Amino acid sequence: MFRKMALTFVVIWLAASSSSSSAFAWPLLPVGYNQDWALPSTVVIIDAGHGGIDGGASSADILEKDINLAVARKLYFILRSQNIPAVLNRTGDYALSDDNRWHNSRSRHRKDLSQRRQLTDEIESELLISLHVNWSKKSMQKGPLVLHQSSGESSLLAFCIQDALNRQQNTAFLPREGKPFYLLRRVQDPAVIVEMGFISSEHDRTMLTDPQRQQEVAEAIASGIRQYKWIVH
Fold first, then answer.
1. Beta pairing partners, 88
2. CA torsion angle for 86, 1, 39, 51 (degrees, to 10)?
3. Average pLDDT per run of 10 along the chain, which is 233 residues long?
4. pLDDT number for residue 157
5. Which residue in 23, 29, 103, 154 has the fewest CB atoms around it within 10 Å?
6. Three-state DSSP class for 62?
7. pLDDT for 121
8. Gap between the Cα atoms of 141 and 61, Å rounded
9. What value, to the nearest 5°, has the Cα angle with vertex 142 and ends 56 and 189?
10. How far is the C-alpha of 23 from the C-alpha of 26, rounded, in Å?
11. Long-range pairs for 55-61: beta carbons < 8 A, 24 or more residues apart
12. Other CB atoms within 10 A of residue 34 CB
């Protein structure tokens, strides 16, 4: 797939090639993209966690990276249908660290994270939504959790998404500040990490691997984003 290039050029190149029949070209295009712009612009950057060699959390042959991408694609289409510009930072099963030629580090994990953060510098945006799946040694642990930055706007965004996911999954959790997480520390825009459920829980795993239930998760996240935007604007 189209991937071995810097993130800025990926978005611009795909815009110029919008007539391509590639199944994965569409998500990188911001809604309302104008080729006259010097740099792409969007409202929401959707970060599909992990990818490629990095499968994330797992249960048997079920991998977090696949769930993250499936929900990310659905979220992209929902936001687009609601006239909220969005981009995806990966559209297939590959590691973003493979595209990172600028970070002088031997750590694949650090290069992956810095490449994700770099997209928020390359594309003018308002929000970063990072999609992930949780794991616990306790198989009974289930439910969504949204992690946020210390800023008030990130906290508000997290509360809006957490509330929507709680209603979708019939839970009553509160979001938490994610101090140790690289993206939440380094991204300047309001950003959250959405742990959509526990892959270690049979209940959540069934939900997270069912396309219709994935759609419900994506719709809940989109609802939280809309609520945030309504309050802020």
1. 46
2. 60
3. 38 34 38 50 88 88 97 97 92 63 46 60 86 96 97 97 98 95 87 97 98 98 97 91
4. 98
5. 23
6. strand
7. 73
8. 20
9. 60
10. 7
11. 56/132, 56/133, 57/133, 57/134, 57/135, 57/199, 57/200, 58/135, 58/199, 59/199, 59/200, 59/205
12. 9
Cα-trace Rg, the chain: 17
Domain 7-232 has CATH 3.40.630.40: yes
State both tokens at 145: 């959790």
Neighbours of 84 (CB within 10 A): 19
Q: What angle do CA 134, 140, 143 make, to 5 degrees?
A: 45
Q: Cβ contacts of residue 23 below 8 Å, gap of 6+? A: none
Query: CB within 8 A of 120, min separation 6: which ones?
Result: 45, 128, 187, 188, 189, 191
Per-residue confidence (pLDDT) for residue 95, from 0 to 100:
65
Nearest in space to 97 (alpha carbons), one of 131, 63, 138, 53: 53
* Residue 49 to residue 199: CA distance in whole angstroms: 14
Structural domain spans, the chain: 7-232
228 within 8 A of 129, measured Cβ to Cβ: no
* Identity of residue 88: L
Half-sphere exposure of 78 (CA within 13 A, CB side): 20
CA dihedral for 115, 207, 219, 26, sign (positive or negative): positive
